[in-house]
Design a protein that fits this description.
The protein has 18 helices and eleven strands. The protein is of the alpha/beta class. The strands form two sheets. Strands 1, 2, 3, 4, 5, 6, 7, 8 and 11 form a nine-stranded mixed sheet that branches. The longest helix is centred in the N-terminal third of the chain and has 29 residues, at 2-30.
């Protein structure tokens, strides 16, 4: 029996070794150098390798390892320009306020000054406050409105807490009154329901008793049930109410620490996936859309991650569970070798050194920047994609089936942090 077990172990070890070798050979053999990440470089010939990998995909997701990775922001800005000018993408959907970047954006005059001011106020400051995002938010995006092909902005985050969303409760009140919903005729509607909905958006900062979350959820469920009888299933205001319901749930789990680790991230990512699907299917069904978000959100699965005992769901996983969306989506992750990371207002930290046998060490000979497409490998090894070490989820090198999480990886050799943009 012992010789048999020894032989079986040897066979399994050989199989794992061969799979690792196949992955390494594929990655080293297909890695293509990228000349620069600087957005001012309009010679996009080096980005054609990414464009060819994307093919006819209508949705391209661009990740980032941490909210403060300056060269990643530069690379993403250059990719936005390339995708817009060479591939016909006309919508930029950002991990920020769903209400502000849809309702407010649609009503905004599109002169350059108004666009710049609005973007700076209604996109999270991890991006708008970073010097590396200056070319995107203060120059390129507003400038497209002086052309025949402007880039429309959209948001998909159910954290509706940015300045324009101060108007959310008032505008929702007007809609509900115009529909003459039964709930609007109740004694508590004016004195309790609308004020509570207005306050709820800031409960992440000052958390009330759990009973108030339950009461708010009950009111919102009643509102949604009554509104759904008069509005179409895809109506924007039903989507807003759904976001309020999930925002309330998200903040409840932040308050209830016993449940936070199991549910809070899932609530947010599932709603962001629903919002993104709504943008792709309802608001912009015929447009090509760029998605700007954290890599952990856009990853197509988190089941294989070694740090995922909570079984956290990703937005990208929920989104691509729809075959019609999955078939038209290309997901780009990012990886880096060394340097510093950190967010504005928080201490910087040094990137941990990658494993000797890791994606970063395999592609580093290609130069400061490179790109690897995983699509062909995915198709050939769908049943057993194999594992390798990479810092693709954040800045920590872990072993996972990375070809299941992303369709391609943009490698950056030297990472550094944002400087605060005045």
């Amino acid at each position: 029996m012992k010789p048999f077990l020894f032989l079986l172990s040897a066979i399994l070890a050989f199989s794992v070794s061969n799979a690792q070798l196949s992955l390494k050979e594929h990655i080293q053999g297909t890695a293509m150098a990228i000349r620069t990440v600087h957005p001012d470089s309009t010679d996009f010939s080096d980005l054609e390798v990414i464009g060819n990998s994307i093919g006819d995909a209508r949705i391209v997701m661009l990740g980032e390892q941490d909210h403060g990775d300056a060269p990643t922001y530069l690379a993403k800005t250059r990719l936005v320009k390339y995708l817009h000018e060479k591939k016909g993408f006309t919508v930029l959907a950002i991990e920020s306020d769903f209400f502000a970047l849809n309702r407010g954006w649609d009503l905004l005059p599109k002169d350059s000054a108004s666009v710049v001011k609005y973007l700076l106020n209604n996109i999270f400051t991890v991006w708008t406050g970073c010097d590396a995002c200056f070319p995107l938010f203060r120059q390129y995006l507003p400038g497209t409105f002086q052309t025949a092909s402007p880039i429309q902005i959209a948001g998909f985050d159910n954290q509706m807490m940015l300045p324009y969303s101060n108007q959310l409760a008032h505008q929702l009140d007007s809609v509900l009154l115009s529909l003459q919903l039964p709930v609007t005729k109740t004694p508590e509607y004016r004195q309790q329901i609308i004020p509570t909905i207005d306050l709820m958006r800031m409960w992440w900062r000052s958390k009330p008793d759990l009973a108030l979350y339950d009461q708010c959820a009950a009111w919102l469920q009643q509102i949604r049930k009554e509104a759904a009888q008069q509005l179409s299933a895809n109506d924007f205001w039903l989507q807003v109410i759904d976001n309020l319901l999930q925002e309330n749930e998200h903040y409840r789990f932040l308050k209830d620490k016993d449940k936070y680790s199991k549910h809070s991230n899932n609530v947010r990512d599932l709603q962001m996936a629903a919002n993104l699907a709504w943008l792709c299917k309802v608001k912009y069904p015929n447009e090509k859309i760029i998605v700007w978000a954290a890599s952990q959100h856009i990853s197509k699965t988190r089941e294989d991650m070694p740090d995922n005992p909570r079984k956290v769901i990703s937005m990208g996983g929920a989104f691509t569970a729809d075959p019609s969306l999955a078939a038209n989506t290309y997901v780009v992750g990012f990886s880096s070798y060394e340097g510093t990371a950190g967010r504005i207002g928080f201490p910087d930290y040094t990137l941990p050194k990658p494993k000797k046998e890791s994606f970063e060490n395999w592609v580093r000979p290609k130069g400061a920047y490179s790109f690897v497409d995983f699509k062909k490998y995915q198709q050939a090894h769908a049943a057993d994609p194999g594992k390798f070490y990479m810092s693709g989820y954040n800045h920590y090198n872990v072993e996972a089936q990375w070809t299941r999480l992303y369709d391609g990886i943009f490698y950056i050799d030297q990472m550094y942090t944002c400087k605060k943009q005045p």
